[in-house]
Specification:
- The protein has 4 helices and 21 strands.
- The protein has helices at 2-26, 39-48, 224-231, 249-255; strands at 33-36, 54-55, 58-64, 77-78, 82-88, 101-102, 106-109, 125-126, 130-133, 145-146, 161-164, 183-188, 207-213, 237-240, 271-273, 280-284, 294-299, 304-309, 314-318, 325-332, 337-344.
- The strands form 4 sheets. The chain has a 9-stranded parallel β-sheet with strand order 1-3-5-7-9-11-12-13-14. Strands 2-4-6-8 form a 4-stranded parallel β-sheet, with no helix packed on it. Strands 18-17-20-21 form a 4-stranded antiparallel β-sheet, with no helix packed on it.
- The protein is flat and about 55 Å long.
């Protein structure tokens, strides 16, 4: 009996040790803020928390001697902000290829050796502001062409889109998938930028205030989103000290004369009701859908909660399981896209 009891005690102790290790290594660190200030800390994160894929808080990366982010390669989502500030030594964002969603803001500020954003290629949604400031070696915002909710496959940004003082930035084409920003559009002091091509598909109605100034080489601003916004602004307009063609509002409006700002689309006639809704919404199309017509519903953090193919002109979608709040309904096919806001009560 004593031998059996001893064996059971040892077995129980062993199980508790194993269980505690599983719990330790299956979870992310406690707290709502992670601060990385050295390469060693980044490297050790993957070792100490190998199964941490979704961190609910914010992550700040800052300091010298940080040359890669491979220690963060297991991360799929960040519930708060991702801030990369005053990092010297880092030239790209490799190591974050698995990151698909940021619930808060994406802040990339004063990283003097950062030359591109490669590594953020899977990022599809940012719930709040995207601010890319004072990165003096940054030439392109490539990798943000997936950003879909505010860059890489990015289609929407929940707050401001701010590109400021990136002195060699000359290409915004990776933002061509961006359709909505939900705040101000701020393009300032990017001295090598010559064109706004890449911002064409932003819904002008999603832009609050428009600020474009001190981009001394910027001469081509007559992209569709800007022309539509100037025709029907939602806020204040500040345009000055850019190159000829973009130096003031009048110059851009003159250039917009040749741009057809009214693009009839069958998606303009899509109806979503009731709104607000409690248990279900109906999506009504003006025509029969094709095999490529789909619907998604995302929250304000950009997290996709529902995805379905639309097979009839009227589709009822159950949202009873969703918490109360604001959601974005996106309907698209091969040629058109529509995004609308729905309130769940």
């Amino acid at each position: 009996m004593r031998l059996t009891q001893g064996i059971m005690k040892n077995l129980t102790a062993t199980i508790l040790i194993i269980f505690s290790q599983v719990i330790l290594y299956a979870q992310c660190p406690p707290g709502d803020l992670l601060l990385f200030s050295s390469q060693t800390q980044i490297n050790e994160f993957k070792v100490n928390y190998p199964n941490c894929t979704d961190f609910d808080g914010s992550i700040i990366i800052t300091g010298s001697g940080i040359i890669n982010l491979y220690g963060l390669s297991e991360l799929n989502s960040i519930g708060g902000d991702l801030q990369l500030i005053y990092v010297s030594g880092l030239t790209n964002m490799f190591g974050l290829e698995g990151l698909t969603a940021i619930g808060g803001s994406l802040l990339i500020i004063e990283n003097y050796t950062l030359s591109n954003l490669m590594g953020l290629t899977s990022l599809s949604s940012v719930g709040d502001e995207v601010a890319i400031h004072n990165n003096v070696s940054l030439t392109r915002v490539n990798a943000l062409d997936s950003l879909s909710s505010v860059g890489l496959n990015l289609t929407s940004v929940g707050g401001d889109l701010s590109l400021e003082s990136n002195t060699v930035l000359n290409d915004l084409s990776a933002l061509e998938g961006l359709t909505s920003i939900g705040g101000d559009l701020n393009i300032r002091s990017n001295y090598a930028l010559t064109t706004l091509a890449g911002l064409d598909n932003i819904d002008a109605g999603s832009i609050n205030n428009l600020l474009m100034y001190s981009n001394t080489s910027l001469s081509t601003c007559e992209v569709l989103s800007i022309c539509q916004y100037l025709a029907s602004p939602n806020g204040t307009i500040t345009i000055t000290n850019n190159a000829t063609g973009c130096d003031n509002q009048g110059e851009i409006e003159d250039a917009c004369v040749g741009v057809d700002i009214y693009e009839p689309s069958t998606m303009d006639e899509v109806l979503i009701y009731p709104n607000p809704a409690t248990s279900a919404i109906t999506v009504e199309l003006p025509m029969m859908p094709t095999h490529s017509t789909h619907l998604t519903i995302s929250n304000t953090s950009g997290q996709q909660l529902i995805h379905a193919q639309i097979r009839a002109s009227q589709t009822k979608v159950d949202i009873s399981h969703l918490p109360k709040g604001i959601y974005f309904v996106k309907v698209w096919d091969d040629e058109n896209v529509m995004v609308d806001k729905v309130i769940k009560e």
